[in-house]
Each structure stands twice: as structure tokens, then as C-alpha cells.
Amino acid sequence: MKQELEWFNQLTEQLLQVEKDEPVAAPIPTSELANRLDLELNEDPISDDEFFASLQDLVMSTPRTASKSFFNQLFGGRNAKATLGELLATMLNNSMYTYKVGGPQVAVEKEIVKKVAMAAGFNNDFGGTISSGGSMSNLIAMLMARDKISPEIRFKGKDQQSLVAYTSKASHYSNKKNASFLGIGLECLRLVEVDELGRMSAADLELKIKADIDNGLTPFFVNCTAGTTVLGAFDPIREVTAVAKTYNVWTHVDGAYCGPVLFSDRFKHLVDGLETADSFNLNAHKMLGTPLTCSVIVVKDKKHIYDSLSMEADYLYQTDMDEYNLGKTSLQCGRRNNALKFWCLWKSVGTTGLADIVEKQMDLAEHARQYVDSSEYYTLYSFKDSISICFNYKDIDPIVLCTSLYEHAELMVGYGSYNGVTFVRLVTMDPRNEMTDIDAFFKTLEKHAAKYELTPVLAG
Ligand SMILES: *Cc1c(COP(=O)(O)O)cnc(C)c1O
Question: How many angstroms separate the alpha carbon of residue 247 from the centre of ligand 1?
Fold first, then answer.
């Protein structure tokens, strides 16, 4: 590997430099990919020099998600310790299904699950796993709830449409996919109304649950979001679980985006009542900034994760107790070690360091909101306590603006919509940024709009 490690160092050093000098890679139109990059796989081998050159071109043409101009999605930045953990996980190449092949890495994952469960207030019989993302964590949650209300589905399949799930209109689209995967059916996923701040209405949830019961249906699952994907709103967990418990319905808290607020004394009130839920997940690869992907799902009573996910396989589980054979609580068979990167981060900075990350992002967001709010040229659509800052500038079409910024390689920022309005969504995800970087974001955007004479939609 000596040669490859040298290449690796060379490419990473080049990448780190170019991230500073040209924070946005010039995008390649898909129609030109084949001409601009040597991507084709051929019959014959190539020389090391040719190989390195192709790889280098590819790396340098790839979107730079760790640069100071990347505000596009709910991930970004680069935490050095977490990246080290990720690189080592690749070198070690364990599979996390058994203690026999995962060894102490299994205990690393178990420690993370335990500490997240504790932070969530799931103290005694908790269980959990690290999944490949928030969508999969939400799938596991809905699956556990389905199997709890109807244990025979696992054996006989589902033959009638009577189970009903609930999630807010502003929740992540994985809830829809999961309802379809699990045989619940998209038509049996109710979209609950939200209030003016984008939070689920517990009153509407109760109305919908009652109506379904009156119609002979069986409510079994409600998904409550801690940080909705567009606005970053926090559903009122305590109110939702109170309604859910009355009707024997499972409450899952989807904290894929903003669940990590629970580590901060300043912000954990946003997930007040979390301990009353049945399951909870957070993505370490969003707010906490580990490399993609790392999602932790915890459940209050571990019985449910075993009931839904364990299956005997004597060719696999040959030693040790199930407690250390994590394949018994996983959707997958072979599973990469997504724990080590999160552990490296957490171990190095402590839980107070995780809180610092969250608080820095919230402070950057507050700064951005104040900037938007204090200028007559901007309209603000998002609210406080959110690291998504949704705005429009001079009524310029946000799709035109974001696309132009990307095509001219100036900024990577995305747009979103809510209640029929489309806006730019700035996400202050990278805790390495400073207030001045946020100011620079707005200045770049403003200069760009002037330079390219982007005009308001309603102009003239
Ligand atoms: C991003 C997100 C998800 C999905 O997580 P992935 O890791 O991308 O699958 C689920 N829920 C919410 C609220 C999210 O923001």
C-alpha cells in the first residue's frame, strides 16, 4: 500500500489547498462528463501514471463539501478527528455483525448507543444500533412499532389495510418511503397539520387518530421531528407523546437533523419530553459533522429491536452472546464500521465539545438571521432556534439565484419550499465557520446578483 498511501497524501494535500483557493469546483455539465473525465472502464489495465492522472482529475472535479462555500445541504465541513476514525475504519475493514470479526469495535458502537440512549433519557432497558442514515433509522422505528402492534405480520405478512401511521406535513420524505416499504401503504400515512412555525399540531394529530379509530382502523405509529428538513422546526414531543400514549401509539422522534441539540444545556429544551418517546434517532453526519454516514437509533425497550431485527443464522453467529453480535439488531448483514468516526470525535472533545459544536452552529444561524432581518432587501421565512436560514433576496427567483451561484462556482447553497413559497436555504452546518464567513456568504450572493443582473420575479 506504500504507493497508494503516498498518492493519498498527495491528493489530500492538493484537495485541502484547492478547497481554500477555489472553494467551489467548477461544475461539469452531465453532457460533457465523458469528454472531460476519463471515467470509462476498459478491457485492459492502464499504467500507474495514467491511473493517478485519471483519479486526480476525478477528485479535483468533485463538489467540495468541506469548503467554506458549501451551504447546500444538511452536512458539510470536515472534523479532523472524525475523519481520522473514518480512514482507520476503512483500513481495519471489519464487519459489525459479530464480536468475532468486529472485536472491540463492537464495544465502540455499543458505547455510543448507550450514551445517546442516556442523553435521550432511555435509562434501563434501552437498545439501539448505528444505521446507514436517518431514513433507515426511521424505517427501523416504524418497523418496531408495526411488529409491536401486530406481531404476526413478521410471520404471515400483512393482508389487510388497517394500520395507520402519522407524521407532520413538514416531516422528511423517508416516512412515506417507509410506509410503502413496510406494507402500511402511502394512503395509510396521515399528514398532520403544522402550526405557523412548522411544528406538528398535537390537536390535529388527535383528531386524525380519533377519526381513524372511529373508522375501524388501528393507529400504531407517530413520527415526531426534531429539526424538520426545510425549516428546522421542533415538533412538541411531550404533547405528541401524551396524545399517542392515550391511544397506545408508538412515538418515534426523528432527530436526524437537529437531534444533537440534546447535548447542549442551552438548547436541549427544544427536545423537551424526549424521554417520553419510544425511540429516537440522530445523524452524527449532519450537525455533528462526522463523514457520511452515521445515524444512531435508540429504543427505550430493547425487546422491540430484537423482536423486529434478529434472525438465527448458524453460519454467522458462532461465538459470544447476542449482546455483542450486533447483526441481531441490524437491518443489514455485513455492515461497515460507522461507529469509529463518531467515537473519535466524541472521545476527543467530550460531550461538552459536542455541545460546543451545536451552539456554534446555532450562534452562526442567529447571526445570519439577524443579517437577513435587518436588511430591507431580504425576506426571512424561518424562525429562531434553527440552523436553516430560509430567505429571499430582492424577490429574485431563488432557483435562478442558487443555480447561477453554482454554475459560476461561487457558492453551493440550495433552495426549499414551505407553504407554497420557495426560498434560499442557508444551513450553518460547519462549526469551523466564523461570523465573518456568514457575512462573506451574503456579500458574495449580493455581488453575484448585481453582476449578473438577476432581477425580481415580479419586476415590471
Ligand atoms: C436528513 C433527514 C433524514 C434522512 O437522513 P439520511 O441520513 O439522509 O437518510 C430524516 N429525517 C430528517 C428530519 C432529516 O433531515
Answer: 27
Of 159-168, 197-206, 328-337, the one with minimum mean pLDDT is: 159-168
Rounded CA gap, 264 and 342, in Å? 17
As a whole number of angstroms, the distance between CA 405 and CA 72 comes to 11
Contacts of 68 (CB under 8 A, 6+ apart): 23, 430, 432, 433, 437, 440
Class of residue 85 by CB neighbours under 10 A (exposed 0-12, middle 13-18, buried 19+): buried
pLDDT at 297 over 60: yes
Per-residue model confidence (pLDDT) at position 460: 42
pLDDT for 320 equals 66
Range list of β-strands (E), 256-387: 279-283, 295-299, 378-380
**Residue 451 phi, psi (nearest 5):** -60, -40
Report the atom number in ligand 1 closest to the C-alpha of 226. 13
Q: What is the pLDDT of residues 253-268, one digit of tens each?
A: 999 999 999 999 999 9
Residue 119 exposed, middle or buried by CB count within 10 Å (0-12, 13-18, 19+): buried
For residue 315, the model assigns a pLDDT of 73
Between CA 183 and CA 157 the distance in angstroms is 9
CA of 256 to the centre of ligand 1 (A): 5
Whole-number pLDDT of residue 458: 60
Are 298 and 128 within 8 A, CB to CB? Answer: yes
Q: What is the DSSP letter of 127?
A: E
Angstrom distance (rounded) from CA 178 to CA 291: 24
Residue 54: other Cβ atoms inside 10 A: 15
C-alpha span between 433 and 200 (Å, rounded): 32
- Ligand 1 neighbourhood includes 378 CB (under 6 angstroms): no
pLDDT grade for 73, boundaries at 50, 70 and 90? confident
- The four Cα atoms 425, 429, 431, 436 give a dihedral, to 10 degrees, of -10
DSSP 370: H
pLDDT band at 307 (very low <50, low <70, confident <90, very high): very high
Give 273's DSSP letter: T
pLDDT > 70? residue 218 = yes
Q: Establish whether the linkage from the previous residue to 12 is cis, with ω within 30° of 0.
A: no
Q: For the chain, state the CA radius of gyration.
A: 23
225 Cβ closer than 6 Å to some ligand 1 atom: yes
